[in-house]
Structure formats: structure tokens, C-alpha cells
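Dear colleague,

Thank you for sharing your sequence with our group. We've completed the structure prediction you requested, and as agreed, I am returning the results in plain text so they can be pasted directly into your records. Please verify that the sequence below matches your submission; if there's any discrepancy, let me know and we will rerun it promptly.
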Amino acid sequence: MAYAYIGINVKAPSSPEVARLLSQRPGVAYTAAVWGQWDVVALVGFAVERDLLRTLSAIQATNNVVSTETLLVRSDQYFDRELAEAVAGGKLLAFIFLKMDSQKTRSAYERIEALAATGLASIYNVAGVFGSYDIAATLLYSNEAELKTLVMETIQEQTDGVDDTLTLLAVLGEVYKVGNAFPA
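Please find the predicted C-alpha cells below.
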């Protein structure tokens, strides 16, 4: 299975409606209405490129969708863990996208993956991506101070080669389809 993050711009004020609607599409792991550069972020899975193109076409044909940006996940750089339990337990969701010094992307990915694997940092998944960013991650947090520490102190300051980051906060209550996202 291959994956892609899709950033979606929509007509205001339809981001919650679009996120909810898109979460029902086959191949969509989860969606979230977010604050920031995009209005909705979706993680999709696909077996072959044709499936991704079908999903993208369906997203682009959805009422109120203005534009999309697709970040393909590198098959050699993807780590995730269970999200449903954390969200059900009251954790908040954010996405971080990193632009990297090209010579340091691999080591930065490995550092963030190691943090995620320990379970100590609230990193649900991390992926190397192709597109306008180099690394994407889904973060879980309880409060703003925890998110600040994770993004600014752990990822930005302690990960060599980070040139720029984009952090998007999910709108409270607007995260959809986080359990059993990709059935076997």
C-alpha cells in the first residue's frame, strides 16, 4: 500500500462538511478540518497509481473544493501507530510539514521516526514525502505548551537541517475516520 497526504482548499465555511464527506470515501484513512495553509488535510492509501488518481478526481469534484496539493509518501520512509485510541482519549491533532536541507532529509526522518517509535513523543506518524515539503508528520498533543515543546524544541531545534516548518492544527471535533483506516 502506498500513501499520500492531500492538502485541500475549500470555499468558506465548508471545511468541516468537506472533511466529514471525504472521510467516507474508500481509501481515505482520515481527514481533518485544519487552521492554516489548507482547510482540510487527508491521508489516503492506494494500491496502484490509478487508485490515487481516482481518489484525487473524486476529491476535486466534491462541492466546495477549490484546489488540492498532493504529497506522495516515500515507500522507504513511513512509520505510524494507532491513532483512534489517542483521539478518543481527548488528544488533539496537528500536522507538521518540514522543508529540509536536501543532504539531511534522511537523517532528520530517522530521528523523528526514532522519537515516534519510542512512544515518548506524541508523534502518530512520520513520512518522507515528495512535493513542496520533504517530511510530514501527524502529532498528538494535550495542550499548547506540549505542542510548542514538541514542534519548536524537539523537532525544530534538535533536528539538523530543518529549513522551514508548517504546523496545522486540526479544528476541535473535526477529525474523521481514524480507526481501521486501511483494512487488510
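Summary note from our side: The chain has two domains: 2-73, 76-171.

Kind regards,
the structure core
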